[in-house]
Amino acid sequence: MNLDPVRRASRRSRVVERAAVRFYRVLLVWYPRAFRVAHGAEAAALFGQACRDNWSQGSLGRLGRRVLSALATVPREGWAERRVRGRGGQPNDVGPVSILGGPGSWTDLKYACRSISRRPALSATIVGTLAVGMGTNTAVFSVIDATVLRPLPYVDARHAMVLEAVQASGGAEDPNPKATWVDTWAAQASRVIERVEARTSRLAVLTGSGAATRRRLMAVTAGYLPSIGARPFLGRLLTPADSRPGAPPVTVITRELWRSQFGQRPDILGATIAIDGIVHQIVGVASAIESDIPGLTFSLAVALPGGSREPVRAVAWLRQGVSPEAAQGEVGALAPVVEQGTDVRARLVRPDTSLWDITIVKATELGMTAAALLLLVIAGVNVVNLLLAAGEARLPELAVRRALGASPRRLIRLLLLETAVLTLSGAAIGLGLAWAIVRSLTALGAGVQLQTQLERIRLDPVVIGYTVGIAVLMTIAVGALPALRGARTPSAALKESGTRSVIRLRRAASVLVAVETGLSAVLLVAAGVVGRSFLAMQFAQRGFDSDHVMSVNLELPSDRYATPTSRAAFFNALLEDVSRLPGVDRAGIGYGATTPPNFVLIGKWSVAGSTTGSAALTSAVSFVTPGYFALMGIPFLQGADFTTADLAAANASLQPAIVSRSLARRFWGDANAIGAIVEVATPPRVRRYRVIGVSGDVSMWGLMLRHCRNCDPQLYAPLPDTRHSTDVLVHVRPGAPFPVAELRAAIARLDPDVPSDDDLQTAEESLSDFIQLPRFTSALFAAFGGLAILLVAVGLSAVVAHAVAQRTREMGIRMALGATRGGVRRLVIAQGLRPAFVGLVIGLGAALVVTRYLRAVLYGMSPTDPITFVGAPLILMAIALTALSVPALRATRVDPVQALRAD
Amino acid sequence: MPEMDRTRVAALLPLAARDYLILFVLVDGPLHGHGLLKHLEADANGVPFDPANLYRSLRKLERDDLVVSRAAASESNGPPRRAYRLTALGRAVLTAETSRLSALTAAARLKKLVPAR
To answer: Chain A to chain B, count of Cβ pairs less than 8 Å apart?
Structure first.
């Protein structure tokens, strides 16, 4: 076609105009219908003309801006118009987005509540099911929230960053800056940093208030306590005046300490307490002093002296609107502090928030999140099933409404409102349930890795918001299918017998039952594997006489036991007293010698003169005295125990050492290790050990790790000197009780200022602490598995009961034609079991995949543990049979005559 | 101006900026939608003005008796067009609003918010 340029241009601009008009008309759906009718065409034409003008003038920028501005303006203004109209407007114009709002919804809400209360049993089942699903999810979310999303207690945590020190010369790195540097840096970077607060942390011995006790203390700047959300319960918190040189020593204690050490005496303010021998006045009781170190609990706080040279943990709060990157740049460019000839620079880092670096914590939390989500899906499927069944019974009612002029949209809204009322009730109950779950989780104990975090869980607005969010999602997920189905009801359903739709429902119900059973199988298998792994851990060989050993770690006040001789004198006297106690057959001392061991040596290990090469290794280290192995009941595989002569060599450059079987195997296999020399490079020093013996493994890390044969490397070295902090170990005769009170009394007799109230544990107790997290995990999974079974039982029996009720007439005919009761019962059970069985098979397949991800939390257990994979389906099938027996029995009670007459 | 109109005018003040602009454009004589849009955009340095929004405002102004509209001859196959005209009340409100604004401008000038002329 040959058109001249002018005509071609005008043709193009007409195309643009038409497209613009169409585009605008679509956008106009945001306006109410009345407005569209009155002004829509005109407005769209105007828009088209304006676009055409822009086009023909060649101002494409303006055209683009016009389109963008329409996209932004029309929805906003249209919505505003709707709101204006909604208040006085036409009741029938609900609009595209106001499915749950708009005029008439109040009436519908009343309808919804009425129709819910007309079916109390069904509604209660639905609400209960939803409460279980949402409650467990809320509980798990609150755990995740407390541990992963906000693991640190800082107020305004979004703006908090940690101020660290970097040594320019690359020397040994202590990221904790000294308090004086922090002050300097904070002053220099005041453009980006609003304020810096700092604390130190140490264990302190408290005396002068009943029995001596050892508690964790923080020395803080005045603003630190408010920054971690501490509030004065009595008296006050610390002030800047408390940090001035020469200020009287004061302290703020926690309510917990007030309760346990002072019996909650009302005149606590002004009372005194000696902290490491220095008398402090108590000026306040804080609600709590939150810990920013997982596993540590703080009991009291003192003022950090001004100008202190101590290394501190410094937290900086950025000014409003300053990005972390900008602040990092500014702080990194500050002039370095010169310290002993090296430059020290400042660095801002995000707080090390992630507990997820701890593999087992990550695995635990991922596992419980997945389990909770599975449970929610199971609950959701259950509810869909119940709602569909209920909807089937309501076909006539919906048909009547439809025939009387209710629009499909109105019906959808009504049905969705009903679901919303149910889910929100479920959410409310679920919140209560979540609270109970969190409380019991905390009581159960989650080990050092999670405990402090768990104790911080509150049902705060974030958690409640999460629950409400889930409820809204569930309303849509669960309500959509039944609502759409209900709204599609033709008025013809009034006349129809409804047989066809019943058959369709039965198929949908079967699929849902299969899905539900499959998901439950996955959960149950996971719970089984984790639970069996925990049992295996509980009954595993410890490698020492764990039933008859107890230990206590004692801390001698440093002022009165300044010399090794005075400390040795105390412990010798104590050991003499203790070995005379009834039932005690051996007693000894060590350092880091309790179980599980407290110290590890991380470095590059190599065997001198060997070609096996070196390995980076983490080994537990204990410092022990002769007789330790006999006391603990740890066997010797090669060589023998330390002698008193070895103690003398404890400070030599080549020390005698005893290694565990795991360690020996790692370097020498089955060959003789005695006499070999091990070098451990921990820059800047290299430690050298001469192996004089190989002991049996004490199962510690092996308890936590999967299939671990050689993962308990341990090195024993002679105790060089009696230290302030020393472990006292006691072995009792078989059958004798642990002399806990006597041991305490013996310590108090020797020196009442030596605290013995904590850390006084039997070996089994401390091991039990050690495996708290696995126990926590398995309890959690067991609970989830149990709930899943419960939901399956409820779902299956409700669906089958409904099907039976629908088929009363058919059962009547069958029985009239001579079917036996047994036959009818078998029919019902078989038809209910079939989908469950199909689901089960698929679920077991899925479980094979899923349990592989649980490896990290399994101990000595294959993820495809055959006992679990056989046992779990058996349990599920048994539950399904039980659930089916009720409706089956009901089916056999059908009276043929009644059933046939009923329709 | 009759007493009653004065109270009506006062009741309609202050005027929304958008409404003010529309009335202002209509001072020179009646316009239909397209003309209005063009003038409004020209006054705003070409910033696009949303047509539906224009009709929202026009409807409100018409309800308040500030403008009146009447059907105009439409283009051959286009939608029906209406022409909008300022009423006496509309003109009075525009005048009142303008003097209110100029009083404000004078006050702003005293506070050196705008340069003195």
So the answer is: 67
| pLDDT at B74 exceeding the cut of 70 | no
Contacts of residue A741, defined as CB under 8 A and 6 or more positions apart, other chains included, come to none
The SS3 of residue A683 is: coil
Q: Which of A38, A39, A66 sits opposite B48 (nearest CB)?
A: A66
* Nearest Cα residue to A216 out of A202, A206, A205: A202
Q: Percentage of chain A with pLDDT > 70? A: 85
Each residue's pLDDT tens digit, A859-900: 667 778 888 899 888 988 888 888 888 888 877 777 777 766
**Peptide bond between residue A684 and the one before it cis (omega within 30 degrees of 0):** yes
Rg of chain B over Cα atoms, rounded to whole angstroms, equals 16
- The answer to whether A42 contacts B80, with C-beta atoms less than 8 Å apart, is yes
- Distance separating alpha carbons of residues A600 and A593, to the nearest angstrom: 11
Q: Could you identify the residue written with the tokens 């029996």?
A: A797
This prediction's pTM:
0.60
Q: How many CB atoms lie within 10 A of CB A157?
A: 18
Report whether A298 contacts A183 (CB < 8 A). no
Contact state of A42 with B81 under an 8 Å Cβ cutoff: yes
Name the pairing type of β-strands A599-607 and A615-624.
Answer: antiparallel
- In this complex, do B48 and A77 lie within 8 Å of one another by their Cβ atoms? no
- Sequence-distant contacts of B72-81: CB under 8 A, at least 24 apart: B72/B32, B78/A45, B79/A41, B79/A42, B79/A44, B79/A45, B80/A41, B80/A42, B81/A42, B81/B32, B81/B33
CB contact under 8 Å between B80 and A41, yes or no, is yes
* Contact state of A73 with B34 under an 8 Å Cβ cutoff: no
Q: In what order do the strands lie in the sheet with B67-72?
A: B31-32, B81-86, B67-72
Separation CA A112–CA A98 (nearest Å): 17
Nearest of A326, A21, A298, A308 to residue A192 by alpha carbon: A326
**What interface predicted TM-score (ipTM) does this complex get?**
0.82
Say if B83 is an interface residue toward chain A (CB within 8 Å).
Answer: no
Distance CA A594, CA A622 (A): 8
Nearest CA in chain B to A41: B79
pLDDT tens-place string over residues A286-338: 987 877 776 677 889 999 887 778 888 888 988 888 888 888 888 888 888 87
